[in-house]
Amino acid sequence: MQHAPPIDKAPTSSATRTRTRWTILAMLFAVTTINYADRATISIAGPSLKADLGLSAVEMGYVFSAFAWSYVLAQLPGGWLLDRFGTRITYFFSIFLWSLFTMLTGAIGFFTGATAVALLFALRLLVGAAEAPSFPGNSRIASSWFPTHERGLAAAVFNSAQYFATVLFAPIMGWLVHTYDWHSVFYVMGALGIGLAFVWLKVIHGPRQHPSINAAELQYIKEGGALVDLEEKKHAGEPSQVDVFAAIKELLSNRMLLGVYVAQYCITTLTYFFLTWFPVYLVQERGMTILKAGFVASMPAIAGFLGGIAGGWLSDRLSKAGYSLSVSRKVPIVLGMFLSMSMIGCNYIETDMLVVAVMSLAFLGKGIGALGWAVVADTSPKEAGGLSGALFNTFGNTAGITTPIVIGYIVQNTGSFSGALVFVGANAAVAIFCYLFIVGDIKRVVLTKSLTKSLTKSPIK
Fold first, then answer.
1. How far apart are CA 291 and CA 145, in angstroms?
2. Burial class (CB in 10 A: 0-12, 13-18, 19+), 115
3. How does DSSP assign 431-454, residue by residue?
4. C-beta of residue 273 within 8 angstroms of C-beta of residue 304
5. Contact between residue 25 and residue 236 where contact means Cβ atoms under 8 Å apart
6. What residue ranges of the chain are covered by domains with CATH 1.20.1250.20?
7. Are 41 and 186 in contact (CB under 8 A)?
8. What is the pLDDT of residue 232?
């Protein structure tokens, strides 16, 4: 068992601080990259898989959405597991299981017809359920390891992994499909994730338990607002600090949080368009080969990645300059969503490269505006951080259910993606409305009605 390093020596200067929190962030980035690459396997394999199994556009929409059904339903149980047993061990099992189910998806090639389709749907459901604790876990770790003025960048970095996953793996997965077959994508990505799960156990610990942190860094992050005791005693599985159902009711009755949750649904609509239908759009609407689509899809992803880093940097820069937390978080989100609406312009453009440029601008904006997890880390009550993150992710990833299906019906009924791009752009507009007119001041929520009796008698210090 790892023991916390001595923390009784006062730090002498900022130069003596370790930088362990950045190693933690690098691990979050790596895991989230694999997370999103595994989600995207189905879209890269989609055109070949669709042809092999003889699926219609609507049927493909349902297959695309299978992940999100279970992902959404498992959010609250996943958040409860994080709060009850801690992030480190819960997240390990999450990574291992989603990777195993991804690998098994490649084996449906041994089946045909309705059996193959049913197994594909079932395995995507299992991948979604296994991934449920991942982003609430990211948020908990950011809350415990990063001071407030660094948290925007930290959240932006792990969130930008969704774009880096496409930059790195879309060309590789496209090449695998082109050179071998669509089954190989699932085998390769599943094996990578299983290996990474064991690296996670080696790298991730709470701030007080980590063998590499020194007293100066611990004091620095604690004084900056990091919840360094968030993971304390979670290994013992002690009783929950809150009444779960009362806490859910209390969180949902908070106007600020409700506005954030609805906005995240709209922002995640853009994410799922990109993860599911975008490669199909390039092949079907723009006439590209799957190999070319794999490489072209990486260009907007690069823009999204750069936008994610820029949004986090801008938010923290505004915070350090003395602007309120509300201003420093809202400005990048609103600006980014305005840029994302530019994708509607692709309906009026014929040149493929110009379409790619406009899509890149849209995903640059999506990256800049993807600060929802920083807002969750800023606002979640410390007794129920996993639960709050799970509610946020439940709202957001409901878009993973609706977006693929709605776009599937639009494409099948109209024969084009024009209406689909308008649908996605309109969601960006609603997100802007939520942050400007519903959310109000961004601040940490203090639970008053849902704490257990023992905790209300002896509040956390």
1. 40
2. exposed
3. HHHHHHHTS-S------SSSB-HH
4. no
5. no
6. 18-230, 243-452
7. yes
8. 67
d(CA 400, CA 394): 10
10-residue mean pLDDT profile of the chain (461 residues): values are 42 68 94 88 75 72 80 88 88 96 84 76 91 89 89 84 80 83 87 95 91 91 85 54 84 94 94 80 75 71 87 91 93 96 92 87 92 87 81 88 88 89 95 96 88 52 38
Contact of 246 with 447, CB cutoff 8 Å: no
Query: Which of the listed CATH numbers 1.20.1250.20, 3.40.50.170, 3.40.50.1460, 3.30.470.30 matches domain 18-230?
Result: 1.20.1250.20
d(CA 247, CA 122): 32
d(C-alpha 432, C-alpha 444), whole Å? 21
- Cα–Cα distances in Å, from 453 out to 238, 384, 445, 461? 15, 15, 19, 16
Q: What are phi and psi of 451, to 5 degrees?
A: -70, 145
Q: What span, in angstroms and rounded, lies between the C-alpha atoms of 263 and 90?
A: 27
Cα–Cα dist 355/348, whole Å: 9
Closest CA to 360 of 291, 283, 278, 417: 278
Contacts of 187 (CB under 8 A, 6+ apart): 103, 106
Rounded CA gap, 125 and 274, in Å? 19
**Cα three-residue angle 21-27-31, rounded to 5 degrees:** 145
Q: How many CB atoms lie within 10 A of CB 351?
A: 8
What 418-426 contacts at long range (C-beta under 8 Å, 24+ apart), as own/partner pairs, is 418/347, 420/273, 420/277, 420/281, 421/343, 421/344, 421/346, 421/347, 422/344, 422/347, 423/269, 424/269, 424/270, 424/273, 424/343, 425/340, 425/341, 425/342, 425/343, 425/344
Task: Please report the pLDDT score of residue 131 as a whole number.
Answer: 93
Q: Rounded to 5 degrees, what are φ and ψ at 382?
A: -65, -20
Query: How many angstroms separate the CA atoms of 117 and 277, rounded?
Result: 19
Altogether, the residues listed in the chain come to a count of: 461
In whole angstroms, give the CA distance from residue 461 to residue 459: 6
The phi and psi torsions of 440 (rounded to 5 degrees) equal 70, -150
d(CA 323, CA 183): 51
Tell me the β-bridge partners of 242. Answer: 451
For residue 100 the two structure tokens come to 């195993």
Beta-sheet strands, E only, within 150-264: none
What's CA 152's distance to the chain center, in Å?
14
Query: In CATH terms, is domain 243-452 a member of 1.20.1250.20?
Result: yes
